[in-house]
Amino acid sequence: MLKKIISIIIIVVALAVVAFDIGRFTKKVKADKDDNGTETGDTVRTLTDGSFTYEINQKEELTLIRYSGRDENVVIPDNVSGRPVTGIGVLAFNSVKTIKSLSIPATVRRIDKMAFFSCSAIKKIIIPSGVEEIGSSAFRNCTSVESISFDDAGALKSIGDFAFASCKKISYLEFPDGLKYVGEGAFSNCIKLRSVVTDRALEEIGAAAFSGCVELNALTIDSDACLKFGSKEKPAFHDCKSIEKIIFSDNVKTIGSYMASGLGNLTSIEFPKALERIENSAFYGCIGLTSLRFPDTLEYVGENAFFGCLALSTFNEPSKLYEIGSGAFENTAWYNMQEDGMIYFGKTLFGFKGEITTGSTAVVQEGTVSIASGAFADTSGALTAITLPSSLERIGHDAFSHCRASIIWADMSGSAALEEIGERAFADYGGSIISIPASVRKICEYAFSGSRAEVDFSAGTSLTTIGKHAFADYIGPTITIPASVTEIGDSAFSGISCTINFSDGSALMELGYGAFANYKGYNLKIPDSVVSVGIDCFFSSSANVIFSENSALKVINADAFRSYEGSILVFPVALEKIDQAAFNDCYSISIIGYYGSEEQWKNIGIAGGTFDDLDYVEFEYDFDYNKYFEIGE
Questions:
Q1: Pairwise CA distance, residues 556 & 561, whole Å
Q2: For residue 461, which of 125, 174, 383, 618 sits 20 to 30 Å off, Cα-Cα?
Q3: How do strand 110-111 and strand 133-134 relate by DSSP bridges?
Q4: Strand, coil or helix: what is 20?
Q5: Closest Cα to residue 115, out of 134, 143, 132?
Q6: pLDDT at 536
Q7: What are the angstrom distances between the C-alpha of 452 and each of 371, 376, 422, 518?
Q8: Are the C-beta atoms of residues 322 and 393 closer than 8 Å to each other?
C-alpha cells in the first residue's frame, strides 16, 4: 500500500514539473499580415524563467530579451533547461534602476544595443571571455559604474557606438587582446576616466570615442595596426584637455590618422623605436608641442600631420624619410621661419612657400629623392618650367596637379631610381608634353586624369602597371601604351577621345573592368596577347574595336560591350566563350566580323539570348580586314 502511495506521489510531482516547464513556454507570431488580413511570419519561441524571458533560436540557444525583476544582485544563468544563454537582447534591462551587482555568464557571445541602457545603479561591469560584440549604447548612462574589465580571451572584436558613454565614475580602462574596433563616442563623457591602455590588435577608434573625458591624462598606445582615430571633425580624443603626454609601445609602427588631433595641452611625445609611418592629421593643432625627436626608422609623414602646431620649431630629419604629405609641417614655427621658395625637409622637397613670380623657373636640387604630395599643385601658370633631378625616387600624389609648367628631367638616362608616379601626380596637368623615365614601373590611380599634356614613354621603358583611372578623362593628343605593360586597371582610359595605340609585341593578357568605357576614339586595335575582355570594358565606347586574325582572345565577359556605340566588331578564331548580356543595348553595331567560318562560329560557347537584340546585325564570316580598314591601320 505504501509503495502505491509513493508511486502516486512521484507521478503527481513529475506531472507538476512537466506542467510547470511547459507553462514557461509561449508562442507568438509576428504581426505581419497578407493582403487578406491573414497573419503571416515565422513563429518566435520564448521561454520565461522567473524574472527572465528568453527567445529561443533554431539552434536551441537563448537570448535574454526581458528582465522584469527588481533585485539588487542579478546573476544571469548560463543555461535554462539545458539550453545555453548566448545573447542579451535589445533593451533587455533598459532603465532598471535597482541592479547594483551584475554577473554575465561566459556562455554569452553577444550583448545587443541598449541592453543595459541607463541601469544607473550598477557599480561594476565584467565582460566575460566569450563575448564577441557589444552593441551600441549597451551600457550607456550606467552612471554609477566604477570599473569596466574584460576577461581576456581574445573573443571581443567590436565595441559599438556610445556603448559605455557617460559611465561617469570609471577611472581606468584597458582594452582586451584581440579587440579591433571601438565605435563612435564609445567612452564619451566618462568624465573621471584618467588612464587608457589600447591593445596591439586594435584597428580603428571611432569619431569622438573619448570626447569629453576631461580628466584623461595617461594614454598608452600599444596598437601597431590602428590606422584611424576618429575623423577630422571628431577626433577620437576630442576635448581631452588633460592629456600632456602619450606613451607608445616599442612595437608600434604606425600612428594613425587624427590620433592626437587637437590635443592643445600635449607637450611631449616619445615616439616608438620602430615607427615607420605617421598618418594624416595625427597631431594636427597640437599647439603645446615645441620639439620632436623622430626615430631613424620613420619613412612617411602624412598630410597635415603636424599642421597648426604653432610652437613646433625643432625636429630632426630621419634618414629613411621618403614621403611627406602636403601641409605636414605648415603653420608651425619651423615652417614660418623658412625663407620663401622651395622648402626641403631632408631629402624631400616639401613644397613651395610664398608668391611665385610669373615666368619664373624652379630647379629641384640634385640629391632630392622625393617630391611631397601637392608640392607644386595649383601653381597655375606662374612657373614656366620645373627641372627634376636624376636622384628622384618618388613623386607624391597631386604633386603637379593643376600645374602648367614644363617638366624637364636633368638627365633622363640617369633617372633610374624613379619607379612610381603617385596618385593624381599630374591630374589636370596643363603642360604641353611630359616624358616618363624608362625606370618607371607603375603609374598610380588617376595619375594623369584630366591632363592635357602629351605623355611620352622613354625608349626601353620598364612600365608594367597602369592603375585605376590613370588616364580617365585625359584630353591630350595621343597615348601609346608600351609593350611592357601587363596590367591595365579599372577604367584606366575611360572617358577619353584621343588616339590610343598599343606598341608591337605587347604582353598584355587582360582588359579589366571598364578599361575603355566611354572611349570616343576611332579605331582601337587590341594586342594579339589579350585573352579576356572584362565586364563593361567597352561600355558606351564608340571606337571600332578590332582584334586581328592572330589574336589569342578566348573570353568576352558579361556586359563587356554594353551600350557599345561603334559600328564594327571583329573577333578572332581563338574565341571560345561569350557571356550573357555581353552586347546589351548595342544599337549602333552594323557588322560583326569573324575571321573563321560559320561552322567555327557555331562552336563558340555563346550564352543564351546574347544576340537576341541584334537581329539587324550582319555577320560576316571569313572576314576580310582590308575590305573595311586600310592596310596597316
A1: 9
A2: 383
A3: parallel
A4: helix
A5: 134
A6: 95
A7: 22, 17, 18, 18
A8: yes
Tens of pLDDT, residue by residue over 120-158, are: 999 999 999 999 999 999 999 999 999 999 987 679 999
Helix (H, G, I), strand (E, B) or coil at 208: coil
**Mean pLDDT of all residues belonging to the chain:** 88
DSSP letters of 262-305? T-TT--EEE--TT--EE-TTTTTT-TT--EE---TT--EE-TTT
Of residues 209, 211, 156, the one with CA closest to residue 182 = 209
pLDDT of amino acid 10: 46
Cα gap 159→140, rounded to integer Å: 12
Q: What is the DSSP letter of 207?
A: T
Read off the pTM. Answer: 0.76
Which residues touch 262 (CB under 8 Å, ≥6 apart)? 235, 237, 238, 239, 284, 285, 286
DSSP string, 565-614: --SEEEE-TT--EE-TTTTTT--S--EEEESS-HHHHHTSEE-TTTTTT-
- Please provide residue 601's backbone torsions phi and psi, each rounded to the nearest 5 degrees: -60, -40
Q: Which amino acid is at 583?
A: F
Query: Which cell is 403 given?
Result: 600645374
357: Cα separation from own chain's centroid: 40
What b/e string do you get for 509-529 counting C-beta neighbours within 10 Å, with b at 16 or more? Answer: ebbbbbbbbbbebebbbbbbb
**CA–CA dist 174, 220 (Å, integer):** 9
Which residues are paired to 532 by β-bridges?
A: 510, 555
